[in-house]
Amino acid sequence: MARTTDPDRLGYPTQKPQGLLERIVQASSNEGDVVLDPFCGCGTVVAAAQKLDRQWVGIDITYLSIDVIASRLRKTGLTEGKDFVIKGAPADVLGTDQLAARAPFQFQYWALSRIPGAMPSDRKTGDHGVDGVLHFWDPAKASKAGKGIISVKGTIAVNPGMVRDLAGTVDHQDADFGILVTLQEPTDGMRTEAGKAGVYKYNNQREIPRLQLVSAADLFKEFLPLQLPPEEVRNGRKMTVIAEPGADEAKGGLFGE
């Protein structure tokens, strides 16, 4: 298994070291061959095959895994649509409607994958409607740890009560802000309720609405209509180090690559 200190570690309990899989791929195939991983998880085989100039096909049942692999490939300089393609993900709003009706949890995972830094909640029940979390560094906080929560609603009907419920959950979870993702466009009444929640000031300076609403259609836009903490402080993983970082730590030591 990959060590917890391994720079390629992505948090999967069964993740193998990339170096080991590179040796296996190299010994069992030639450049240009196709490597198939039908249970690709966090994509270590895919990364190894790509590095060794093999063609590859990776298959997984969850959008969460596919998003992890896509992110991993992007960090190596590859571009989705040019260097690799993702098949099976919704291509438009009709696709999201069908996914939400067929597999509600997969719709949640897909929606979370479209919000930079968001990670699924560990709990499926008793979570007060929290489907995802976004952890980030806030230097103005005593703990330095900030948190946003995300609720995904795949129902056809939407109403202001959903916003009020999220407001209560933000308070209950002691979160800094909440994001409500809906299959349908939010109503005017929902936007009015969200506006009542006020703002959270990141680093005591940057104002971020405490409640934000986005639709499935918004998740296809090039520029996501969300106000979030700066990208360099968003990570997705819960922070375990709460000391003030130095310049090097701020880049990679705390949040990793």
UniProtKB/TrEMBL annotation:
Its EC number is 2.1.1.-. GO terms for molecular function: DNA binding; endonuclease activity; N-methyltransferase activity. Residues 123-197 form the Restriction endonuclease type IV Mrr domain. One of its GO terms (biological process) is DNA restriction-modification system. Keywords: Methyltransferase, Transferase. It holds the Pfam family N6_N4_Mtase. GO terms for cellular component: cytoplasm. It comes from the Bacteria. Residues 11-62 form the DNA methylase N-4/N-6 domain. Belongs to the N(4)/N(6)-methyltransferase family. PANTHER family: RNA METHYLASE-RELATED, TRNA (GUANINE(10)-N2)-METHYLTRANSFERASE HOMOLOG. This is Methyltransferase. It comes from Candidatus Cryosericum septentrionale. The lineage of its organism: Bacteria, Pseudomonadati, Caldisericota/Cryosericota group, Candidatus Cryosericota, Candidatus Cryosericia.
